[in-house]
Amino acid sequence: MRLSKPVDIQEISQALQKDACPICMLLKNLQATASRNVTSAEVVGLCNFHAWALAAAVDLARVAEVFLKLLDSADPAHPVTCSICARIREEEEQRLKELVDKMLGNNLRNWLVEQGSICLPHSEKLLRVAPVKLRPSIEKLIARRRADLSKELEEVRDQARLGEHRGGGVLGHAAEFLVSQRGVRTREEDKC
Ligand SMILES: [Zn+2]
Ligand SMILES: [Zn+2]
């Protein structure tokens, strides 16, 4: 699969958008940048997802170098982890901490609870690293987003039953909330 184009987002506040998970946005961006710039010197291994993402890259010389190195070093007896996944996990950890720091301020916390979104996989991770006093806000945010999406999905379902096939965007938002944005690897089973 092809990866999205990286955009210039440096800070978590730039990734805050109504109804979109800021951690997903930052990770997607990092993944796109890392895949575009990764060199043979940095790579020790690649997972299925990232090897195929690189196979679709336009920078043939760079990617050929990466694959040459992996062909040379691959040893089925000693599988190695994916260098891009490792980089993403590092970033995820840092960004979650950054989000916790920002949520300690009232403005961002209230905004998130009222109109923001954090996908379920990142909410679980956030709950693990956040101080106890932030828990009620995170739980409120999850409950509000869940209720909003349920209502929208019910409308799509009822209209579709009446022959009105619109609102596909709602399905995408629901998928995003349930399993993170498309191509963002967050679950344990995704780890290599
Ligand atoms: Zn997310
Ligand atoms: Zn990977």
Keyphrases for this structure?
192 residues; 8 helices; 61% helix; mainly alpha; binds zinc ion
Mean pLDDT over all positions: 89
Distance between the termini: 18 Å
Number-wise, the strands total 0
**Structural domains: how many:** 1
Which small-molecule species are bound to the chains here?
Answer: zinc ion
Shape category? globular
Order of helices and strands: HHHHHHHH
Characterize the main sheet.
none
- Cα Rg: 19 Å
Helix content estimate: 55-70%
Task: Show the helix and strand layout.
Blueprint: H1 22-37, H2 48-55, H3 60-73, H4 83-103, H5 106-115, H6 120-129, H7 135-161, H8 168-179
Helix pairs in contact: 1-4, 4-6, 5-7, 7-8
The structure holds zinc ion (2 copies).
One zinc ion is lined by residues 47, 49-50, 82, 84-85, 192.
General description of the model:
Helix content is 61%, strand content 0%. It has helices spanning 22-37, 48-55, 60-73, 83-103, 106-115, 120-129, 135-161, 168-179. It is an all-alpha fold. Helix 1 runs antiparallel to helix 4 (83-103), helix 5 (106-115) runs parallel beside helix 7 and helix 7 packs antiparallel against helix 8. The protein has one domain (18-190). The chain has 8 helices and no strands. Bound molecules: zinc ion (2 copies).
State the gist of this model.
The chain has helices at residues 22-37, 48-55, 60-73, 83-103, 106-115, 120-129, 135-161, 168-179.
